[in-house]
Amino acid sequence: MKQKINLLIALSVIALITLSVVQCYLVKTTYNYKVAQFHSEIKEEIGNITNGYSDIDSAFVNKKELLYKQLANNYILDKKTKFYIKSALFQNQYRSELTRKLQLKFEREIPNLTINFAIVLNKFVIYNSLKKADTIFSEKPFIKNKLYGDLASLDNAFLVRNYVGTTSGSSLNQDYKLLTEDSMYVSVIDWETIILKRMRMILILSLFSILTLITLFVIAIKALIKQKKVSDVKTDFINNITHELITPLTTLGISTKILERKDIRENDAQFNSVLHTISRQHNRLHNLIDQVMANSLGEHEIELQKEKIDLETFLNAIIGDFKISNPKTYIITDFNTAKTTLLLDQFHLTTAIQNVLENAVKYGSTTITIKTALVQNQFRISIKDNGIGISKNKHSLLFDKFYRVEQGNLHNTKGLGLGLYYVNQIIKAHQGSIAVMSDLGKGSVFTIMFQV
Ligand code: ADP
Q1: 287-451 maps to CATH 2.102.10.10
Q2: Residue located nearest, by CA, to atom 25 of ligand 1
Q3: What is the pTM of this model?
Q4: Phi, psi of 288, rounded to the nearest 5 degrees
Q5: How close is the Cα of 305 to the center of ligand 1, in Å?
Q6: pLDDT tens digit sequence for 86-133
């Protein structure tokens, strides 16, 4: 059964992990899709705004073409170097003006987004009259080749459009054509937040479904473990009660057989002795059944007959009786509560305290110390023993019905696991509480607390 539960837990954990991984993969795919969708929206909007640049400033387009032609002339006529032409291209005086104009345009047309951009020149090629290409430069998009814009790097930017321009000119009666290619890169401030906002519903739903699954899984496993414990405890109880019943029943059986013998019936002394045995075993059986019946009541079903009790006198009476039946146990009392009286059920409370004292002896104690104290409106009775003690991980189970520390068939001490359950029910019925402090081999202290 335990192996089955472990296997079930392992399989469920694997299923949960797989589901979480699949969920993460789906969320990541959606994220990528949303990013791509966002990029194409921006591309479309910007594409509409910057269609050919001429609608931004046609004068600028003319000036730009003039500059390109002038540089082409410089190259053809003045034999300036390619390096000179390239540097002159990037030192154009329209840089800041066009940057500002484009920024303004973006702000006006796409007011809900903050956009940074860069237009980088990738190619500057002169075709002479024979259509022979003379490449001044041709490079991949590179931020150092920025014509205009406010971006400092292309790392987080995405390509919006490539623009290829051609201009015709003539120099020294020779016609030439200019081919330029530039790319626009854009970066949207806080784009991650925008995407996350768009994915809000998906994120919430997937998180919710995963959390619900984990919660249901934990609840199911807890219920399974609890069920297993209950079934173990019940099996133990049946073993214990069978064990307890078998002795009186066997004795009764043998006694009846003996009584059938004529010689015994004719001998008064022997007959009476067997009768005594039968009566003792009958009482024992009765007590056992009474114990089981009494402990089947919950705290709310117990009817208390409360009366005013002077606690120290009450405890002294219980200790007196206990000493008679346990003459070898040394009892120390340390009472510090003077004449405190409380409304309690004398009968039930006597049984409860007796149970704790009997347990102390049953589980190896030779000395018991009983203390009383008044602490912050609480009347405390602590019962300390020097018995075998209880390991800390068992403390929370001690007051459960039928629970015994020694489980399975390892019983050295007789019991049904009902003593402390009963004590707890009685004390709870009095609106009090009980706590245990103990460790294996270090004795135990049971503290009963009542509100004054
Ligand atoms: P029972 O004594 O019939 O087994 P109880 O409900 O009285 O049942 O006690 C539950 C378990 O708690 C016991 O089986 C025992 O292992 C442990 N226990 C109770 N009192 C003590 C104690 N004073 N010292 C050590 N172990 C104790």
Answers
A1: no
A2: 389
A3: 0.54
A4: -60, -45
A5: 27
A6: 888 887 777 788 788 888 888 888 888 888 989 899 999 988 777 788
